Amino acid sequence: MSCCMSGVSQSKAALLYALYRWVIPTAVQYHGGLALIWHDVIVERMLDTLTQSTRPQRLLNAVQKNATRGDPRSVVKAIDDFCRHKEWAMNVGDEKGCILDSVVSEINPAAVLELGTYCGYSTVRIARLLPPHAKLITLEFNPDFAAIARQVIAWAGLEEKVQLVEGASGDWIPKMKEQFGITTFDLVFLDHWKDRYLPDTKLMEECGLLRKGSVLLADNVICPGTPDYLEYIRSSPRYESRYFKSHLEYTKVEDGLEKSVFKG
Q: Is 191 a known active-site residue?
């Protein structure tokens, strides 16, 4: 009897593992809402409880275990491998990351603002491509995320190029010129709270942080989506805007980046 019970328990465990590891992730690959609920709520909370750690901490551990200190490319690869094969995370990701890389290389910016650091993945992607003496300011509201990001950026050897600032974007944007000696930004990467894209864009306009030719690059404009931002940026005569179709990070769900050039 005990052998039968043991066999049933093992079968249930195997089924649950298969559901968690393969069946459900495959099923949600093409559905944005389900993918976000599964990866960003259910799995994250479950693993936080089981491991008594946070997803950013686990991501940092993967970087420290698998990436070469001082090598930004290996840091990016370690995070991509972790997110594709171990645990999804809300980075811009490898597919959209290539679009981000191409925009940074095209602009060759001297002054960059990133809104939303999270664990520092996109910060590393951007900073590694910047010319000498360029400045990247990245804002993160969550102090726990910021603490992890600082370690990821340092592991990549890019701490001299990056200034990570903790706090709300709405508080810091008006103080950029005074606090950091910024005249205008050549590139702004928006990847923070989606409901802040539009008000922060208008705030940057009001504060004179955009010059003719400044580029706004916005992530997740389709999933989760930023309809008010897209309506504004695409209808405004002050911008020339283009959509780069891609996929939500590490899934098959449609998402993309909106590149908008400020015309003054």
A: yes
